Every structure is written in C-alpha cells, then in structure tokens.
Amino acid sequence: EQGKLDDALAYHQNALDAAARFYGEEHANVAMAYNHFGIMYRRFGKHTDALDFHRKALDIQKRLPGDNYK
After folding, report:
1. Dist CA 63 CA 38 (whole Å)
2. DSSP states of 36-65 as a string?
3. 24 phi and psi, to 5 degrees?
4. Residues 12, 33: contact at Cβ < 8 Å?
5. What is each CA distance from 70 to 10, 36, 40, in whole angstroms?
6. pTM of the predicted model, to two decimals?
7. Taking a C-beta distance cutoff of 8 angstroms, is the pair 40, 8 a contact?
8. Is there a contact between 41 and 57 (Cβ–Cβ < 8 Å)?
9. Averaged pLDDT for residues 2-6
10. How far apart are alpha carbons 53 and 33 in whole angstroms?
11. CB-count exposure of residue 20 (10 Å: 0-12, 13-18, 19+)
12. Are 25 and 56 in contact (CB under 8 A)?
C-alpha cells in the first residue's frame, strides 16, 4: 500500500510541477492538479492531507476570472 502511495505521489508531483512551470501558479490546470492530489490522498485514507489539497485548488479557483467559485 505504501509503495502505491509513493508512486502516486511522485506521479502527481510531476504533473503539478509541469503545470505550474507551463501555466504559472494561478491557473485552472494547476488547481486541477492540486485537486487530483486531494483525490489521491482521499483514496488512501489520508483525509486531512486530501482536504489541504482540495483547499489549495479552491483557493486558486476563487482567484481566477469568473464567478464560478465566489
């Protein structure tokens, strides 16, 4: 189980890093990458970590143009 979590963490970290480099920190794709981290943590039963990543995703979404998350 821990090996699967470690693999998933590495995969999602690479995706997050690539999105942040390509789009910048304040972009919907970066928020989506944070959200995917949250989903992954939730699946492994790490609910506090999951919530932290979902909040990061929501914080970015709130700062993006549009009224979808305000």
Report:
1. 19
2. HHHHHHHHTT-HHHHHHHHHHHHHHHHHSS
3. 95, 160
4. yes
5. 32, 21, 25
6. 0.84
7. yes
8. no
9. 83
10. 9
11. middle
12. no
d(CA 69, CA 5): 30
As given in the structure block, the two tokens for residue 3 are: 């090996």
Tokens of 33: 């990458």
DSSP one-letter code for 70: -
For residues 24-51, give the mean pLDDT.
94
Count of beta carbons in the 10 Å neighbourhood of residue 45: 10
Tokens of 15: 């995706």
Residue 28 has pLDDT above 70, yes or no: yes
Structural tokens at position 56: 């990061």
For tokens 């506090």, the residue is 48
